[in-house]
Each structure stands twice: as structure tokens, then as C-alpha cells.
Amino acid sequence: MNRVFAVARPGFLTLTLVCIALALAFSLQQGSLISLWDAILVVVIGLAAHVSVNAFNEYFDFKSGLDFKTRPTPFSGGSGTLVAAPHLASAALLIAVTALLLVSAGGLYLVWQHGVALLLIGLPGVLIIYAYTQYLNRSPLACLLAPGIGFGLLMTLGAIWVFSATLSAGAWTLATIMTLLVSNLLLLNQFPDIEADASVGRRHLPIVAGRRISVRVFAVLHWLAVALLPLAVGLGWLPVWSLLGLCSLVLLVPLTRGVLRYALHIPEHVRLLGLNVAFVHLYPLLITVGLLVDR
């Protein structure tokens, strides 16, 4: 039975911790006094949201037959849990629903504590969790933006709102950076499954626009995420120490070069998927360190 928890994709949950760490560091740098209970609750809600969307994705991909057609990599193609053990499908769905109920309950508590305006973040988040695999994957734009919005404009910005009770230009900048990074994380991970995804009706960007256009979009979004940082520092929205994040260019330069060079053969260069995961984690983590140094 323990194997069913693989549908939560625990190895991917580090992304949630990166988002919340960034929000926490920014709030502390701004002088906010953060309740330990609020911090713990935000982490629990964030992890539950990530578990829920992962488990729903595994369940729906199993039911559609997609997981029987993909070639899993460490970064794409599903965990293979339900393909190997179909009888665990109902348990996977239970994990997804239970985690979503936990998100909803925790979110309502935060609304009670911090104001009804938090529903502007909570309600779209719940909708994205459920709708991503079933519905949003049928629209290239929605499929591209939904993951980033979920982790950036909802999770990161929502955490800052809870911690600081205000949303400054710096907060919006960090949330936008995470939006671009996470959208790109999912975009590149779609390349190994293009044919399989198309066979079950998905219409994400690599399917609709093709590989060459998609890798150009990928490069633009990542470099835009990087360009926002010095712009925000120059405008006084973020402290100078935030520029520590630019040290991650040591990963971004070879990443974008490789993706543009091997646009038609990404599945044969899985190291690029790993390099993308590393960059998406390292860039915000270095910003987080810079924010803490500036306190």
C-alpha cells in the first residue's frame, strides 16, 4: 500500500519549499513579524496543494490511458505506479481529494485570520489543482501559464500576503519570476511526451506550435525571468543582495544553448531536463539567500 504514495511525486515537492522560502525571506527582509503557526500552515497548505495536483495528474493520466503510452524519465511521463498496480487507482484519487480538502480547510482558516480578500488567491488555486490535467491541458496558453500562476502568482504571492499583510512591487516581481520559471519547468518536461499527449487530446504548446517555436518561447521566458531581477533592484523594489540570483546564469547559459541546439531531440538529451530543474531551483534559492543576507 505504501507504494501508492509515489503518486504524490515526493521528489518534486522541493519546488513548493523553494517558493515558500522565497516568500518567507522577502517578508523577513521587509521587516515583517511572522507567526510560526502561519509559517507552518502555509508550508502544509503548499505541500498539500502540490500533492493534490500530482495525484490528480497521475489518476487522470492513468484513466485516459496516457501513462501506458509514455516513456518515463526522471522528470516526465508519470511515476508508473498505477500502470504497475492498477488496483491502486482509487487510493490515488483518495490522496488527491484528501489533499485538496486539506488545502481548502487550511485556506479557509487563513481567510478567517487574514481577511476574505485571500479568496482571490485561494479559489483560483483550487480550480487549477483540479482542472489542470483534465481541462487546461487542452489549451496551449492555459497549459503553459497555469503551473506558473499556481506556484508564482498564487502560492508565492499568497505566502507573502499571509506573512506581510501587504503586496509591494517587490512581492509582485518575485511572484512573476516564479511564474515564468515554473511555466518553463513544465514546458520543457512536455517534450518527451508530445506524441503520447497528442493521442489523448492534449494541445499544449509543443504539440500546437511545434518544437522549434516552443524552445524559443522557453528561452525568452527564462531570460525574462532573469532580466526582471536587475530591473527590480534598479527601481528599488528589491535589495542589491538579491542580485546573488544572477550567479545561476552558470546553469542558464548552457541550458538555453542546449535546448535551442537540440530542439528536435530533447527526449534524447534528458540532462537538459535535469539542468532545467536545477536552474529553476537555484535561481530563486540564491535570491532567497540574498534577501536573508540583507536583513
Automatic annotation (TrEMBL):
<keyword id="KW-1133">Transmembrane helix</keyword>
<feature type="transmembrane region" description="Helical">
    <location>
        <begin position="272"/>
        <end position="293"/>
    </location>
</feature>
<feature type="transmembrane region" description="Helical">
    <location>
        <begin position="111"/>
        <end position="132"/>
    </location>
</feature>
<dbReference type="Pfam" id="PF01040">
    <property type="entry name" value="UbiA"/>
</dbReference>
<feature type="transmembrane region" description="Helical">
    <location>
        <begin position="213"/>
        <end position="233"/>
    </location>
</feature>
<feature type="transmembrane region" description="Helical">
    <location>
        <begin position="81"/>
        <end position="105"/>
    </location>
</feature>
<keyword id="KW-0474">Menaquinone biosynthesis</keyword>
<dbReference type="InterPro" id="IPR044878">
    <property type="entry name" value="UbiA_sf"/>
</dbReference>
<protein>
    <submittedName>
        <fullName>1,4-dihydroxy-2-naphthoate prenyltransferase</fullName>
    </submittedName>
</protein>
<comment type="pathway">
    <text>Quinol/quinone metabolism; menaquinone biosynthesis.</text>
</comment>
<keyword id="KW-0812">Transmembrane</keyword>
<feature type="transmembrane region" description="Helical">
    <location>
        <begin position="239"/>
        <end position="260"/>
    </location>
</feature>
<dbReference type="InterPro" id="IPR026046">
    <property type="entry name" value="UBIAD1"/>
</dbReference>
<keyword id="KW-0472">Membrane</keyword>
<feature type="transmembrane region" description="Helical">
    <location>
        <begin position="144"/>
        <end position="163"/>
    </location>
</feature>
<feature type="transmembrane region" description="Helical">
    <location>
        <begin position="169"/>
        <end position="192"/>
    </location>
</feature>
<dbReference type="InterPro" id="IPR000537">
    <property type="entry name" value="UbiA_prenyltransferase"/>
</dbReference>
<dbReference type="GO" id="GO:0009234">
    <property type="term" value="P:menaquinone biosynthetic process"/>
</dbReference>
<dbReference type="GO" id="GO:0042371">
    <property type="term" value="P:vitamin K biosynthetic process"/>
</dbReference>
<dbReference type="GO" id="GO:0004659">
    <property type="term" value="F:prenyltransferase activity"/>
</dbReference>
<feature type="transmembrane region" description="Helical">
    <location>
        <begin position="37"/>
        <end position="60"/>
    </location>
</feature>
<dbReference type="GO" id="GO:0016020">
    <property type="term" value="C:membrane"/>
</dbReference>
<keyword id="KW-1003">Cell membrane</keyword>
<keyword id="KW-0808">Transferase</keyword>
